[in-house]
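pinging the channel bc i need a second pair of eyes. not urgent but kinda urgent?? the chain im working w is below, pasted from the shared doc
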Amino acid sequence: MIKKLLLISAIASSALYATNGVNMIGTSTISRSMGGTGVAHYESGVSAIHKNPALLANSKKDEFEIDVTYFSAGVSSTIYDEMPLNTMTTSNSRHNPYTGDSTSHIDTSVIPTMGYVAHIDDKMNFGISMIGAAGMGVDYVGQPDLRKMKTSMMLMKIIPALSYAATENVNFGVAPVLGLGSLSINYDDDITKRNAAGEKVQSTREGLFGTQIGGDTLVPALGYELGMEVKVFDNLRVGIAYNSSLKYTYSKIANFEQFGVDGMVYTLEDFLQTTQNDSLENYVGDPDGLTDALAGYIGDTAAGVVSSIISAGTTSIAQSLERAKPTDANLDDLTMQQPWEMAIGFTYDPMKNMTLTADYRYIAWGDAEGYGDFGWSNQHVFALGFELRRKNLSLRGGYNYAATPMPTDEGRFGIGLVDMQDHIIFEQAVQMLNTVGFPAISETHFTFGFGYDFTENFELDMAFVFSPLEEYTSNGYLVPDILLFELYQYEYKTEMEQFTASMGVTYRW
């Protein structure tokens, strides 16, 4: 049962395209309906455990909560790439922009979250929750122009928490965090394997719990949360919370050599073998001969650029080909560290039946290993929420905004080199992985919902989140502006919109 819950929670979160970077804006139904706020507003045990464990002190009864979230996201990417070497077996994106829709690659569309709070005494409360915290994924398998990109990131947390009411107006909280993450990147062709039509077969990865989703294991990471809540006045509360980073090192994720010079050698060797019955080995020490051999296919300028890059390599053609093969032995590890976060929140009750909330959250993507390597920047998250209560009914709404942490990738020199955790890859490859593979581009979210108390102990809540269409573009060129114009330009563009609906039930006793 636990294994099944972990699988559903993790796999479902991989398609969230999640919101603030890859993080969900709220972990409980009430929080999601109020713009993801909750650093200073006690909504439920699940939200308090994740947003600010000090808020658990506001629970006066034991409670159990379960939430489920249904999501629907539309994602499409467009590629235009004038460099023939990148699309030798397909011509769509060489001459006209090619657009493809990402297809769902999960078996469920529901994300469960559960939590339990125990009222120990007047000073202390204990809680524990399991939440789907973040995720992202795309599936362009069968679309060569989009590099057959298939990605999946899944992050969940198991959090026990303890709160302490130091005084009547000041509460503290602490929570150790067990993070569980899974990551896969699948994009490569195996030139040694072909189907009956002679087409290259895309390599596969063993997925989570025997599926084709995510990596083959859940990688653990340890961290902690700290929180404080202060009642300034009877109708004004302030909360402060800190979440530590969680460091995940995923094994055998991708062959990053394929994103650099070795990958260029590998692609060119495949082209020469399949179209000309030729080999790069015939041009060792003869860059001019290689340029002449390629010129008729990719043009004089491109042929010269490719020939000079390959000729400048520090190792032999055979070594480059061996390193670039999509074999298990060549798959590299990748560390993706979920960043530390600092948040401050305010809750104000202007009247007895109304509550206003406001949160500010700082997420240090740029300081985190992995995200920093991909050029992400630190993120400022602003969230507002309100709740109106009338008898047993509560009406809620909110707004959440955070500019994408992904870099501004305009006018890049595509064959510039980037150090990706000790692997030297092209700048264009980083842009492609960001824009097509992990498009964390959602910025604006409008939220609303309601709650109804059927009895003193039983509550039902609903939340709806809409993120309107967002667009992100990265582009560059491969031949510099030495002739007053840039040659072999490329552009990646991704569009996304999302809608989620959540339902939560809470029972107190």
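so Residues 7-14 have pLDDT under 50 and may be disordered. and The first strand starts at residue 63 and ends at 81. — does that match what u expected or am i reading it wrong
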